[in-house]
Amino acid sequence: MRPPSAFEPRAEPGSAVRPRRSALYMPAANPRAMDKARTLACDVVILDLEDAVAPDAKTEAREAACAVVAAGGFGAREVVIRINSLATEWGEADLAAAIAAAPDAILVPKIDGPEDLAPYAQGLPPGVALWAMVETCAALFRLEPLAAAAAEHRLTTLVAGTNDLAKEMRCRPDVDRAPLLAPLSLMVAAARAHGLVILDGVYNAIDDDPGLARQCAQGAAFGFDGKTLIHPRQIETANRAFTPDPEAVDWAHKVAEAFDLPENTSRGVIRVEGRMVERLHLDEALRLIAVARAIEAASPAPGDPA
Q1: Residue ranges per domain, the chain?
Q2: 94 near 83, Cβ under 8 Å?
Q3: pLDDT recorded at residue 306
Q4: What is the pTM of this model?
Q5: Pairing relationship of beta strands 155-160 and 44-48 according to DSSP bridges
Q6: 59 CB contacts (<8 Å, ≥6 apart)?
Q7: Which of 26, 50, 190, 290 could share a disulfide with 143, CB 3.0–4.6 Å?
Q8: CATH assignment of 22-241, among 3.30.70.20, 3.40.50.11540, 3.20.20.60, 3.40.50.300
Q9: What share of the chain is helix, strand, coil (3-state, %, to 5)?
């Protein structure tokens, strides 16, 4: 492994650089599934109180999710609780319980604009971030002000809710998601404009490995940081798609090291192995290095459990 460059990678505002290639929704009404999450190779575990839980199981699921967070044992995995909207009969109790449990983040659904964030952000304890689903047509037209309000409300991450969005739009996306390409691009642009993490939506065809790989590759090409998943068998594919290519990481080190040379520290453009490289490329190189190191740090050693 190369020694660190003198340049320090810049973290996302309000959040450490860490891998979020695979974010697995686990139904909080299923204790065995949540226990299994401690052994899976996903970067993020989302304990779901919303879509994955039937109305008559909401209370039990809430208690179970909070107990699982309290028990810990997730290692380097980020643990998130997705609550029901405050517009529902379960929302207030979900939010209060999630705040008390203090996971890494609380994921809130059906956010239409920045004014929806404040009721969720109030009372967040130190170390607990706010994540928001982008899954309504109204949200698409307010993405910039929503992302701009992130710092005020400790919002660090946007999550594409492609199923609900497609339902509202009445579109029928296939693997390539042509009807959703514009919304997906806007989500990424809004997140990048304000230094937020952005996760792609789920792929519903659990047994379609080629289709999942194709959609993960599309999401990575769009600039998403990772993909939300609905089944453990999807983890490996997502991790592979959103792990920086070793050749790209090697090139990133060369760019960082070249700018670190005394004769280049004040230059805006330099030549590296016959290619013209600008400081904007240095920024991307440092980000790539940081992500690769975070993935390496979070990976179990040979022989250790996942």
Answers
A1: 22-241, 246-298
A2: yes
A3: 52
A4: 0.89
A5: unpaired
A6: 90, 93
A7: 190
A8: 3.20.20.60
A9: 45, 15, 35
Residues 7 and 282: beta-carbon distance below 8 Å: yes
What three-state secondary structure class fits 256? helix
- Residue 62 tokens read as 């809430």
In which residue are the tokens 């920024």 written?
283
- Length of the chain in residues, anyone? 306
Residues 6+ apart with CB under 8 A from 174: none
Give 3: exposed, middle or buried? Use CB within 10 Å, 0-12, 13-18, 19+.
exposed
DSSP 301: P
- Amino acid identity of residue 208, one-letter, is D
Q: Show the CA angle centred on residue 61, arms to residues 227 and 31, nearest 5°.
A: 75
Question: Which amino acid, one-letter code, is at 44?
Answer: V
Outline where 154-245 has alpha helix (H): 162-169, 181-193, 209-222, 235-242
- CA pair distance 37, 234, nearest whole angstrom: 13
Reading the block at residue 163, the tokens are: 């199923």
Element (H, E) at 17: none
Query: What is the Cα–Cα distance from 107 to 158, expressed in whole angstroms?
Result: 9
Which tens digits make up the pLDDT trace of 133-155? Answer: 999 999 999 999 999 999 999 99
